[in-house]
């Protein structure tokens, strides 16, 4: 278990470095001072970067990728360690591993997003959340970090699908939350007419908004699938597919909240500012569902 | 409109080359630094087993006076981790008080570290008063000792000898008035043992 | 972002000039209300909030618990509002029902236009229609209009579009559409809500859930299934570190006197017979039976222990060397005495005050049936007896806790869930986009007006449109 803890620690530090680099990227000198005007197509923001910014951005991306690779190694090592001791190997079997997995998924999602849309400014916000997730995980008491054998109820192949799918949806919602925050930052700058090189690296508001929407469009069906898989598991383990236990109910609450978001987007006036606030609120609900329920509410489902 | 698009594509094609060597080296350097940072601390992952030096710490007691574990070198330290919400801890404490009263003069000190967080911290003074405990009670509301001692729960007791080396690790509660639970303690407290405790294998001594 | 394309095709029938009751208007308003997105949003939020209540206030507890925690007044309000069993109140079920009505009316209102969109394509459009689109471009090409048209058809088809071309005097219009499944997906997802809710209600009303405490070796009758269940064996497996790895029961179903099925169940692996599911739910120490008890027999006169015997449950044993025959007949884990009925019972399931009842036969002359207590060895004295009995140890008998349930609505729920997942996935991944191209011949070649709309995902479509435009230019310049 030492090996995986070592690798998780390295992941934490690398994500911290990546975050620092992305923030430095935002503050770096760039020649073009104007911000992306509204409605402007998603041209290459990299054209707007100077030499410093470009290099910082590239180092940031590379360090993020390194961090992700280490995160993968850490989870794989943990899987092997579990297999040795207890015969199951899902490296998301306790609170700590689940957080590390969510970090992994957030960073993976970010790397894919960056490779597709080439907007490094998003890094500060999304990698930031990935880093916070990993940080929170390392602050957990020692007994939540160990690879102890699982209780009988968790000893099932269902843990491989139900938990991973649900956690991946949390990662998607986390990304949307980060993008929502980014939207508010940019909006403030636009409204106050602030023109600094910091905001010059940001894409236009519509792009940020739509990226956030896409993240939720990914998380929403994943969460539905995750909840349904959970119901199927409960049907084999607990005598019924739905028992209104706090965790089940809170996942449903989160799903309903994002369901309202999806429908709100079709109504005029709900894009942009309101959507950004909503995405942040939804993410806070996800955090409660993920953490709060385990530690604050009791029930069948309180596995930490 | 088309021209703009053409220009933009041409510009980016030039920029999107492979990252320069400087960039790769910088990233690799960061990777190396982080490896070092973690590797230099890697001893903290090792399990705490009998024979290792007990990790030092500094915590406030009930009068907010800071106490360090290393202050007690030269005495046998009975380090007990507990919490106000832990029933077995409550059941165990009176026997600890008896132990303390009987062996304090022989060089035993009991340090009871509470892992109560901010929310339950206030229960500590009434708990201690209610059981009439006289040994030092320390408060670790920030979890300083949690990772150092790799606590898996409460209560846990660590018997540390006069040189600060861990000699016994007890997971769970014990009746500390029963003689067969005190084997290691009594060995350490024997006056003859004090001189030879460094490196000498523990001998079978008759119960006190 | 807004459902513009839907609105465009929705303006179908002109409003009739009504007189009289205005029923048409009224029914349209009603449909609009129930199909509205605002209602959907409202229902989602209200359901979310009410569901929260059930997680904050413990559900299904005894009245005393609520009074203790919240006070009498609050508890009365809880009862009035149904907060102690939120998820089964009439109003919560009503909200779910409203959600079904909402999704069904939405389907009724919007699906026909999607269906029409699939079957009738709007190929003929005006130039201003194309030029008014968000994604549009005008290109001057040197090739004749037929070549350009053919080229476009091939390009769009390659990209997976369904293409239609129309030749008018003086111009050619090419129409391409792709990804209507995304919109169908949303409607399937909406329908699934009703299916799931119906399945849930079916299960609630016609299903059951019970808990059975079962002992090894016993056979239990299951009235709802009209068969018997025998517990052959129960055991616990442990990990290396001492924690529980699994607990298992071997069960045999006996139907009309013949054993029909044997299965070892464990958590996550139940037994199913005749639609009734038996789950390994828990285990514990029985509170009315034990495997064996250890008794010290002491001489009453000098308090010396004469013998120690182990008694098995309900088995008489003759003590070596003493004129005694003993049998253990009863056990309670937490001794309590009901003075009105003059009966001994176990106050709780906790082994707080264990006691056994012995049937003692001394020299065939003194018969006594004393209760002997684990925590209180010298409590009672047996008159006329030369001995004192001490209950010093026992081996508890484990019971296996089985959850017995049947849910007739479950298959419906699974069908609904599949519909939901499929529908949502289609809706998320596939977006409906359409392209229109007008090729107008000029003096030296043609002018191509290309425009496109998308139901969702603007930036992706933007990129796609840009790529298409580039491809068209590349092809024609070669």
Describe this structure in words.
The complex is a heterotrimer of chains A (304), B (208) and C (478). Chain A has 304 residues and is mainly alpha-helical. Helices cover 73% and strands 0% of the residues of chain A. Chain A contains ten helices and no strands. Chain A has helices spanning 2-27, 51-86, 95-117, 121-139, 142-145, 158-192, 197-200, 205-237, 246-264, 273-296. Chain A starts with a helix and ends in an 8-residue tail after the last helix. Chain B is elongated. Chain B has seven helices and seven strands. Chain B is of the alpha/beta class. Chain B is 37% helix and 16% strand. In chain B, β4 (108-114), α4 and β5 (137-139) form a beta-alpha-beta unit. With 478 residues, chain C is of the alpha+beta class. Chain C has four domains: 4-118, no CATH class; 126-179 and 431-477, Kinase associated domain 1, KA1 (TATA-Binding Protein); 206-285 and 401-421; 287-397, no CATH class. In chain C, strands 1-21-20-3-2 form a five-stranded antiparallel sheet. In chain C, strands 4, 9, 10, 11 and 19 form a five-stranded antiparallel sheet that branches. In chain C, β6 (227-238) and β7 form a beta hairpin. The longest helix of chain C has 30 residues, at 90-119. Chain C is elongated, with a radius of gyration of 39 Å. The chains are: A mainly alpha (304), B alpha/beta (208), C alpha+beta (478). The interface between A and C is large, with 55 and 56 residues.
Which percent range describes the beta-strand content of chain A?
Answer: under 5%
By oligomeric state, this entry counts as heterotrimer
Number of domains of chain B: 2
How many strands appear in the DSSP assignment of chain B?
A: 7
